[in-house]
Model the fold of this input.
Amino acid sequence: MTISDGQTSPAYSVPAAPAGASAPSERTGRTVLEVFAPLGVPIMTLAMVAYFGLATTGFLSIGNITDVLSNSALPVIVAVGLTFPLVMGEFDLSISALAGLATILYAQLVAKEDMSPAIAIVITLVAALAAGAFNGLMVAYVGLPALVATIAMSSFLIGMQFYVSGSVQIYGGFPEALVAFSRSSLGPVPTLVIVAGVIVLGAWVLLEKSVFGRHVKAVGGNAEAARLAGVNVQRTRALGFILCGLAASIAGIIFANKQAVAYPLAGLDVLLPSFTAAFIGAATFRFGEFNVFGTVVGVLVTQIAANGLILLGVPNYTTYVFQGVILLIALIFARIVSLRHAT
Amino acid sequence: MINDYAITGRSMDEARPVLDVRELSKRYPGTLALDRVSLRVAENEILGLAGHNGAGKSTLTRMLTGAGRPDFGEILLDGQSVKFRSPDDAITHGIAQVPQPLMIVPNLTGRENFLLGMHARLPRSLRRGGEAIWFGGGDSAEAAVELVAQHLHLTRFLDAKVGRLRPVTQRLIMIGRALLRSPRLIILDEPTANLAQSEVELLFSILRPLARDRASVVYITHRLDEMLDLCDRVIVMRQGRVVAESKAETLTKKILGGLITGADLSGRVDTLVADIDVHGRPRVALEAGGLSSTSDATEEVLRCEDLFALPRTRGINIRLHRGEVLGIAGRDGSGRTSLLRTLWGDRRVTAGRVIIRGKAVRISCPREAINAGIAYLPEERAANAIFPSATVAANATLPWLSRFARLGGIVHANAEVSEVSRLLKRLDMRPLKGAAHARIRTFSGGNQQKVVIARWLLGAADIFLFDEPTQGIDVGAREQVYEVIRELAAEGAGIIIVSSEAEEVARLCSKVHFMRDGAIAKTLSGNEVTESAVSRAIVEEEVEVDASEELRFRGPGIDDISRSSNVR
Done:
């Protein structure tokens, strides 16, 4: 008699029944907690917006809102990529180092080696793909725990940042068209927000509508059952790591163009924010399941908080404290709900 | 309560049971794991709890040890109603469990293992000492350990590293650890699983006085000889219910085996040919109708020649024909599931051949098995086949997504749902309206199994491997599953069924192989396949397993004794 099914939380699932279809439930339906838990994050966000709106000047101004959105674009791209391994019960701690290496490698190639941007981008993406594939190989095929495998990869990639750049700051020589593009706006909307939006939509279609997404969710929901039903679990896991790595490196390349300067360890700081966002996301929309739009909301929550705290005039480090606290709250929340499921 | 007992000892009122379980029910998603289970354990009694995997023994144990909470019913301990909040709570109330896996720390000594986790929470009586504790006399935890060890004949092992002791000693240390908590009742779960016969006798010689003097025992085992040898009374569980209860001396191994496998052995055991098909027609008529035993006349869909997939599959020869339902029986762990998994490409074939529809094939992963026209419905549905949070449709179509994919690998959801709904209607899934969209965990075990069947009906398989097809599903759905299996066979599929239920095997199969140690030990076919014959054959296989295990363990076992006594 197996009883363990309730504990697999990131689940293989598709959107809920369309309105009107009576869900035939042989057990009594959802508990109060299940109904109200998904509302926690939206309520918290609204409360935060209301508080910052009242307590600071300019929080709700168009300029500031644009600012928050613009700052969210790159973290959104990374966090959405991270969502794929998370859905499968894996994770990747090398995303920040990989985004950083992409920034350095791309900058070095275009600015120092005078390579055409297109070729530089292709080379950078191929390098990221290799790193993601290696993570996937180690975790899915060799069977190493993601914790050690991706930490090792992270350390290696940080070293590569210094090696590629020769520990020298790279500035000047960035392709002007791309720099301008990264900093432009379409009307009031920053172009990068649109880029991020397109990637988010693509990721959503991939996870929710495609065959690959079904496999990802099957592996996350019950890997043993997926294997016995003919799903190539190892390949699906490895592909998850590759997607995650690609997303991080795309963000890293855009970051290089946006800043037009690159230096080792001065890239996007996306590790903790991405995990925080994804876990907040798992407490939004579909409770206990990592999902793309939830992750986007999670990024927005962290960015709104960071922005609001700066406007309040509290010291910079408060952001770190705040992020740690929300991550813990999101985790505890998810834990409580999964415990309710298990007994 | 405990002190009471220690003072008054065995002169306590015999009529009041130590443990009184009343109408305990527990539902897990999809299955009714316990269905109004009632049982009593008397003072100083050793109660045997029998039943095959999935019968509800482990769920019952979980309820009794605080690892789970029953939905309905009551547990009375010494006449007082108790509700356990946690395993710790159950121990405090006096119910201790010695689980089946060896839970010892090999690099600590016997004494350290005894005291593991005890320092912080020794009962006050133990810390203070005095007459109040069960083992009496000791005035410290150390002294209590000495006393328990003395009682279990473990004194000379107290300072030896536990990893170097032989299994029976390790088991006794686990039992001793449970005894330190002064339990009223000890639940022993398969304590002899890795013991040789001589060690089993040693263990029993210690358990008997233990029950007489210290605590009542609930003894769980698959080994029927042991159960009849050791226990005063036996309770048999099947499908979440207590189906029989009897004094051990009035039972024989044959009767007990019949009760466990669900064979009807009442009355004229040997002439029982009352087996009927799913429509209630006698089996003879069925054979005349030509459904089953005509196997040799039809095309052979699957053949195994000396198939080895070490260590669990050893030299299997099987022939499966169109329209045939072939049974694989044997006790848990005899290699039945491994055989199916090998055919499914989930175990590496080390020697021998698999021939499908006349062609030798090499299947190295489930996907290749699917492509070869095989379908596999695993045992332990929740763990091996179901994605609880996914919809019914998504659960069913998982192996066939590419068929529903449009440009760019996007799944055509409408086509998927309509196709699945059509199959669910054919399988008589109820309620059907909106079922394809609903999450599968909201359905009963029977309906979940129908979805898994639908999963494989979506393909064009003509070889079906059913592993415990009716495990954890209720009687009505059971008949429907039989009906589906019969229909598939009638349509020309070859079907292999692994089952622990004699009735199931007898009703469905025209031929049954009995497995032991990964090989086929016996085969029944045609009219020989009756409930009683099947149940008897399973029991017979068990005897021989025990004997061979004893052989395997005897050598090192004796060595260990001398070695462990020399260890400092």
The CA atoms of residues 95 and 184 of chain A lie 26 Å apart. The interface with chain B takes residues 1-6, 8, 11-14, 16-18, 21-27, 205, 209-212, 214-215, 217-218, 221-222, 224-232, 289, 343 of chain A (CB under 8 Å).
